[in-house]
Write a structure and sequence with these properties.
The chain is mainly α. The chain is 70% helix and 8% strand. The longest helix is centred in the N-terminal third of the chain and has 25 residues, at 5-29. Keywords: DNA-binding, Transcription, Transcription regulation.
Length: 144
């Protein structure tokens, strides 16, 4: 009986994703955060000021849920809202100094966990993985 490599790759991808997700959740919770809080802070940390829609698209959380997360982070004084001068419907979200200081502290630790996962994978293999996953994602998007 021949092995169906597409099915095997699919199963391996899902298992790896589940394990990685659990590892990342554990790492993020060690900083006293929920994954949704961390992903919003991380998006702002790396991309700077964003609208709620931009954050929602970047972190794959719907806009209704993202508003709740932003409310919580604003109460903790980790981010601020600023109204757009040209369009009252648009609100910009930015990290506060406190939010930036927090991410300056915890993001390098988080990155180290991710780098440790990939330490036995060569740069060439990482490039192949990135390109393969992009290709799979684009095809899946077309079929959706």
């Amino acid at each position: 009986m021949s092995v169906n490599l597409s099915l095997k790759a699919f199963v391996v991808l899902l298992k790896a994703n589940k394990t990685l997700e659990e590892l990342i959740k554990k790492d993020i919770s060690s900083y006293g955060m929920r994954t949704s809080d961390f992903t919003v802070l991380e998006a702002l940390y790396h991309k700077g000021q964003q609208t709620i829609r931009q954050i929602s698209e970047a972190v794959l959380i719907n806009t209704g849920s993202i508003t709740y997360v932003i409310d919580k982070l604003e109460k903790k004084e980790l981010l601020t809202r600023t109204a757009c001068k040209d369009d009252r419907r648009v609100v910009y979200i930015s990290l506060t100094d406190k939010g930036t200081a927090l991410m300056d502290d915890i993001f390098p630790k988080h990155q180290k966990v991710i780098e440790e996962v990939f330490e036995d994978v060569s740069d060439e293999e990482k490039e192949i993985l990135i390109n393969s996953l992009k290709q799979i994602g684009k095809k899946a998007e077309k079929l959706r």
